[in-house]
Amino acid sequence: MASRREFLQKAGLSTLAISLPLANSFGKTNEIKNDQVLRVAIMGLGSYGTRVAEAMKDCKRAKLVGVISGTRSKVEAWQQKYGIPAKNCYNYENFDQIKDNPDIDAVYVITPNSLHKPYSIRVAKAGKHVICEKPMALNAVEGKEMVDACKAAGVHLLIGYRMHFEAKTLEVVKRQREGAFGKTLFFQGLSGFSIGDPTQWRLNRELAGGGSMMDIGIYSVNGSRYMLDEEPIWVTAQEVKTDPVKFKEGVDETITFQMGFPSGAVASCLSTYSLNNLDKFFLNGTKGFAEMQPSTGYGPIKAWTNQGPIEAEHITHQTTQMDEMAAIILDGKKPIIPVDGEEGLKDMVIVDAIYKAAKIGEKVMLG
Ligand code: NDP
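Structure tokens predicted for Putative dehydrogenase (367 residues):
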């Protein structure tokens, strides 16, 4: 497989461009699929980057092979720990050279939010697939630029929506789509945690692009869409601030927001940086309900319905995510809930509308 990959890279073709026709024309692609592994470089060796690296040790289809970091000591520690060769180590100044490295297929951008767009676009221009953390960008305009840049470069853009591969979440989604709950008319999403250190980037508007809404409230936005299987047509929102010193102008502490959907369904959600243990989804339909708590934390996720508990093995979310993302990129596999740039963009459009609605105090129409 290495030789096929090298041939393609020399020929200037992305793995995306050829893996799909091969899979389609041969029908049975198991031999081709199973020995292909997505070789990933992680950019941003922070708290979440470390979690992803650890989870990737158990991956079957994805392998950590490189790093991009501004901190030399971390690079050295990761080289030791994960056996990363010096030729696969970059910093933020020189990582465009990754285009000449045939041993890296994709870069996972796990930096503060404001860096997602510029760094993802540079990765795409270097011809590598982009996996980018949520929120994909600071707003929908930036998100669209990322989608366009990746399309132009012929590379995948995937957003780190790990819940889209989580077994209990997928079971609830399946039952909702099969009509087990009847017509689903109400979703409640509660997303929050109590944030500590006031000097961290999450409380710096330049780097975070906002506050709790960008970081944790986005889970309720995203969850409402996959739990109801619809796109909202309006939002209303209200902002509450109890600590204006810690949560400065443009950094939201708490936002409550509501969304309306074409079917008549409504969502009622809370995003906050001031309460712990706030991680709950509730879906109610004419025939039944589903409840998840915790619903988006690292798990194990707990889920039950009017018919009883949902049982499924807990697998580290990021392990499943990276194996599934490898299958999307290498085999053209279609996930049940999308994780592509367009999916991330839909959330950014809604987040923009929530901020606008909170600011102007009026309902904001979408679409
Ligand atoms: P951290 O602060 O722990 O790590 C961010 C890393 O980015 C730093 O360690 C640093 O790595 C790098 N970096 C580059 N430029 C800067 C800068 N100007 N300031 C600070 N760090 C910089 O953050 P997290 O790992 O918690 O979050 C990173 C991203 O991951 C965010 O977008 C967040 O929303 C997302 N995330 C997603 C989660 C999920 O479940 N999907 C969970 C947690 C976070 P280096 O020293 O190597 O350059």
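The longest strand covers residues 184-192.
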